[in-house]
């Protein structure tokens, strides 16, 4: 809780310390104001120096001073608490107003120190998914994700076809205009047509972007609800229909339409495996596998549903919410974006993969950009202070 900002009542009390020095019986009396805000160690050292006290009483004086300040402080707190309770009992303080103040202070403290809650995703989803992927329902989960992937892939294919047709039509229009340039048309006419083409492309891209976002959001919501419901039903031993529900036959799987040539061809990989033994007495064995392949092949959700592909996805899914993780380092330029090169290809792959376990790539990149800007500003201010 935040400290009370009201006025603190100060009281003065005499601290009395008695000690013997040879045949003399001495008494040290020091007035102290409570609450004591000074560091007790500093106060003790100041008393020793100002009163020329002998060194043999140093430790005993410090213990006695600590005990006196602690006891008197507790008495003050008890007295203030009794007065506050009496004020509430007598009606001098509105108990409802006091409760509101406490509730507000508690809420502010919780918001300041507690981790933000994720309201859009069930907080138990990780445990639920981990349980299901290690159960007979694992194949059902992978099949459902595959069907979602096929739907998104078909949408992306339709988008690419429409954009390609639009660019071809615009290219033909621009060729005709360029042929008439200097005859019946001017540079202004060419610029006007180019602006219209750009606006048309932007409108079409925005339309498909919104449609993909909406479809992905619906799939994610359906997937979450289905996973939670399946987990709850599996806990019910009397539900006999679940065993039939989780048996998805291969014929039930949707296959993607490959009419437009968007096929990920699996090239023959060049690979070699090694076994390395390290250590003279206590040997350790490591397996090393070298292969030449497209980096994005490890990220792509394969369109065909062969057993080898499914086993690879199952292995990844089983370790997803565990302490045994694996990753891929993709070498890109130093610009945080997904507009060109392999970054654009990777963004397309991420858009197709409907795993629903992580935020979208654009959302993650926006977070990275904010962190980079903060780090850059911090380094800049730090270098200015040094200069």
TrEMBL record:
GO biological process, alphabetically ordered: regulation of mast cell degranulation
**Pfam families cross-referenced by the UniProt entry:** Fy-3
Coiled coil segments of this chain: none
Q: Which Gene Ontology cellular component annotation is one that this UniProt entry carries?
A: cytoplasm
- What protein name does the entry list? CL004 protein
- Biological classification of the source: Eukaryota, Metazoa, Chordata, Craniata, Vertebrata
